[in-house]
Specification:
heterotrimer, A: about 140 residues, alpha/beta, Hypothetical Protein Ychn, Chain: A, 5-stranded parallel β-sheet, two-stranded antiparallel ribbon, 3 helices, 7 strands, about 20% helix, C: about 100 residues, 4 helices, about 20% strand
Chain lengths: ~140, ~150, ~100
């Protein structure tokens, strides 16, 4: 990995739709993908609600952006870290989250899961390993 | 930073200059006059520049884009947030960037964009410019520390 | 390799401060700014959580925000350091990265 590649972490701590931050974070991730940096996404606290299945925004007049998470693999964004304690506190488990995968071209385009459920301590380690942290 | 032990005063006799020449990128992501974010960001930027650091760019995002309208008229006994930023920007050559996607949604237009969109007015203040989210990423790449002020 | 964390929310309104101190690593600094400064008083329902990390994490408060809200310095939690904007800048410069807990 060359010297001018930085580790970017997008920290998502807010639920979708009530405020714009979750959508804007995704927008920056998509734009940022063109810059070829080492990108990870963190979902903790209410941010875990962004990844749930079954979002249906038809009746609130707002675009449902949750399917976009499934397209992140096409942008080579393949590291979505989700904090287990945040899920537990909210009565959620991995089964409540969308299936998000990426195709590994070095492994015969095998589909691999993008979501990695990790502990709070592991999340702290990931945060401490970054060059740039963008908070939403 | 730090070609030799800056903590050792024999080598670095100016403790107030320790860690100098850090490049700060600043994100302002909440609106002026509602949230303290743009004030805190301004006070931070001013202090950073006074301490000899650099602030090459400030990126105004979400409702923070509203800082950049030249049509705001706060009461005379209040600080004028836009004018504070314009003045600091021109004094120190700060690139004051307004996120275009956030700006268009909220009615912030420069002359070019107003004419392209067929609008009858524009409102961008002196020293600010409208550009894309790529400027935020680029700021993260090109600066040493990214500071976010928001809600 | 340490981080400066900033928290700008009252701990009585959101979980940002508690989440921040639960994720901060030993040697990091947590700076309470804006409404975050309400977390710096003693005798609150977050005091114990802060005190528990005070040995391993440097706890700071932005003095101008503390003063603006009329908070009493003599009721500030033991071990919290007050900094001004210049001190804020110094913390941001001397840590390797910053993380805002919005």
């Amino acid at each position: 990995m060359s010297e001018d590649i930085k580790k970017f972490l997008y920290v998502n701590r807010k639920a979708p739709y009530g405020t714009i931050y979750a959508l804007e974070s995704l927008e920056v991730v998509l734009i940022g993908a063109a810059f070829d940096q080492d990108v990870s996404l963190a979902f903790l606290d209410d941010g875990v609600f962004q990844l749930t299945k079954g979002q249906d925004t038809k009746e609130i007049g707002v675009k449902n952006f949750s399917p976009t998470f499934r397209a992140l693999g096409d942008y080579e964004v393949t590291k979505l870290f989700v904090e287990r304690e945040s899920l537990d506190e909210r009565g959620l488990s991995a089964d409540d989250l969308q299936d998000i995968v990426w195709e590994d071209e070095d492994d015969d385009y095998a589909e691999k899961p993008s979501i990695r459920i990790i502990s709070r301590a592991e999340m702290a380690d990931i945060m401490a390993d970054q060059d740039v942290i963008l908070s939403f | 930073m730090g070609w030799l032990a800056q903590d050792d005063e024999r080598f670095f006799p100016y403790p107030f200059l320790r860690g100098s020449n850090v490049k700060f990128g600043i994100v302002v992501s909440e609106g002026p006059y509602t949230h303290q974010a743009s004030d805190t960001a301004y006070n931070f930027a001013k202090s950073a520049l006074e301490a000899g650091h650099e602030v090459p760019r400030v990126f105004f995002y979400h409702d923070g884009v509203n800082v950049g309208t030249r049509l705001s008229i706060p009461p005379q006994d209040e600080r004028n947030i836009q004018q504070q930023w314009s003045a600091l920007g021109s004094e120190h050559g700060i690139d004051l960037v307004i996120c275009i996607a956030a700006a268009q949604r909220r009615g912030l237009l420069d002359e070019k964009e107003a004419s392209r969109q067929g609008k009858d007015a524009n409102n961008i203040a002196e020293g600010f410019r409208i550009s894309g989210l790529g400027q935020l990423i680029e700021m993260g790449i090109q600066t040493d520390r990214l500071m976010t002020f928001g809600d | 390799m340490a981080t400066l964390h900033t928290v700008n929310k009252s701990p009585f309104a959101t979980g940002a401060l508690l989440s921040c101190i639960a994720h901060a690593k030993d040697g990091d600094t947590v700076l309470m700014i804006e409404d975050g400064v309400y977390g710096a008083s003693s005798g609150t329902n977050v005091s114990d959580a802060l005190t528990a990390r005070a040995g391993s994490v440097t706890l700071c408060v932005l003095g101008p925000d503390f003063a603006a809200r009329g908070l009493a310095t003599d009721r500030m939690l033991d071990g919290i350091k007050s900094v001004d904007y210049a001190g804020f800048v110094e913390l941001a410069a001397s840590n390797d990265r910053t993380q805002a807990w919005l």
